[in-house]
Design a protein that fits this description.
The chain is of the alpha+beta class. It has 7 helices and 18 strands.
Length: about 475
Amino acid sequence: MEKISAVEDYLTCPVCLDTFKEPVSLTCHHSFCSKCLQEYWNKNSTRNCPVCRRKSSKDSLDVNFALKELTVSFSQKEEAPGGERPVVCSSHPEQTPLFCLDESRPLCPLCEFSLHSGHKVVTVDSVVSEKKEQLVSQQQSLFQRRKKASNKQTQCEQIQELAHAQVEACEHHIRAEFERLHRFLQQEEESALRALRQEQSRQTQTIEAQMVQIREELCTVEQNLLTVEDLLKKQNMDFLTQYRDTHKDRQTLLSQPSPQLRPGLLINQPKVLANVAFNAWKKMRALVQYSPVILDPNTADPRLYVSEDLRGVTFGETKQQQVPNNPERFWYYAEVQGSESFSSGSHQWDVEVGDHPRWVIGLAEESVDKKEERNAFPENGLWCLMFADGEYSDVVGKTLVLKRSPQRIRVRLDCDEGTVSFFDAGDMSLICSHKDRFTEKMFPFFSISKSGDAETKEIKIYCSEDD
């Protein structure tokens, strides 16, 4: 009876509290009588679901025929007068009908029973009871299926909301980075133009000094020419007298070398233009940094905060991010992995750990379990160096004794040789090395916990100095 009651509840309209008539279903999976839903919408001037208040996205609603047939089938017994069974045979209306399972139809026990020899024939009540039990079981499965689908829909909505925020954050970062580069190039352009103006000033001063000498020379020559022309007009003694007085000056002038044009009167273009773009690029290299490993925020556990440049990670001491549990995200431990995998060749990168009290760094295979509890060992797809409680552990968990505490760890992966090695990047002393057979793509892997009183809050990735 409880199961039948559950079916009756399932076939009841939440608005009129009666059995469905022309049932329609909304995207939120709630169903109503078509007339009841329309009257509710008209009365309240809304298109929201009367149960969950979610707005309907459908312009028109079609009758849910599967639900309608179920309602009609379930109501047949109640619609019969006095609760009697519907008449199957007009010749024997008083006889209780039977049901043939092979042909899936009711039959008269007097007229048709002999025609169903060899068939499986049962009472109508038994087959109805069995079918209703199946229907109730299917109903429970549908409820569970609907709940799972609803949870996935909510998860997709959260993912989409985060994706919009990611777009805005990426756009902000891109604009900030290129604005910084634009400012640098503008400053370099202004510096190159200043050098050009300085060269122009030098050239102007040089040519003007040369012009002064030439003008003085020209003025002296002009004066002597006038004197000579005037002397040539003199006669006899006047000529001789003036010739004698001016001859020495002319001889002195003519004996002196005339001003010569010196080098450097033009703009020194090589000085101004030589490798102007290359020199700016060299300076720009000091302005930007390359990282051999870029962290993937979509894999970061909610407690981890990846830096804007995707090169560092911090543990959230007081709160965790509101992010969806997407398939690629670590969801049990505070872990994150790199965005690119390695399957061949040799690769290395440095990780600044400083005095952080608890961290795990290394590599994870592509199929590593991100949702359940497990150890950071090779059998679980992790090859890592660990530091916790003042002790270092190698890839298989063996305690290491080090001469000093490394501030920067170098991770080196040789896919072809099948080795993972860890070095103290300060003096390049080997911390530990492990040889294995890698059958999957390998991702850089990082895990940190609370930093406490340590100065180092963020572990950060750097390019190795010999790269």
